[in-house]
Amino acid sequence: MKRLVAAGLIGLVFLVSALHAEASMMTTLSSWLDKHDLKYEKVGERTYSLAFESNNHPNLFVFVMVSKKGDYVSIFSPVMKVPEDAPKSFYQHLLELNENLWQAKFGLDSDNQILYFEFEVPTRLIDEEEFISDIALVAKKVDELYPTLAKKAGLSKQ
């Protein structure tokens, strides 16, 4: 019985610690966004949304999400809804793009409908400059690659 109580207390300590880390990281990230005059909206307990003007993408948003444990930050942007009849060459192109990326990747949501671009950084390694430049990198990459990806997916007939 004592072991069960001890295990329960240890689990509670880890849970409280994780919740504190998450809240602390959210406070830090919002202060960095404020400092750089980036307009954002809190869209979930652990998520911020930032809208960007775009040359190519019809509706460019970047989301910043802190993991439940507060151990990493995910910076991602929905790229497009993938047509059901997207050619295999589209998926091959995504694999080739991912092969040349480090810490970032293109992926599909759990329903294989939404293509997103994501950059993940462990919170123990992130600093203000990197955080702000990572957000800019995600927005730039999505805006830059959207026309090619849309064409390869069969959305654009150019």
List the SSEs and their pairings.
Elements: H1 2-35, E1 41-44, E2 47-51, E3 61-66, E4 72-81, H2 88-99, E5 104-108, E6 114-122, H3 128-153
Antiparallel strand pairs: 1-2, 2-3, 3-4, 4-6, 5-6
Walk me through this protein's architecture.
The chain is α+β, with helices and mostly antiparallel strands. The protein is built from 3 helices and 6 strands. Strands 1-2-3-4-6-5 form a 6-stranded antiparallel β-sheet. Strand 3 and strand 4 form a beta hairpin. The protein is globular and about 45 Å long.
Would you summarize the structure shown here?
The chain is of the alpha+beta class. It has helices spanning 2-35, 88-99, 128-153; strands at 41-44, 47-51, 61-66, 72-81, 104-108, 114-122.
- Overall morphology: globular
Spatial order of strands in the largest sheet: 1-2-3-4-6-5
Q: What would the average pLDDT be, to the nearest integer?
A: 86
Q: Count up the helices.
A: 3
- From N to C, what is the helix and strand string? HEEEEHEEH
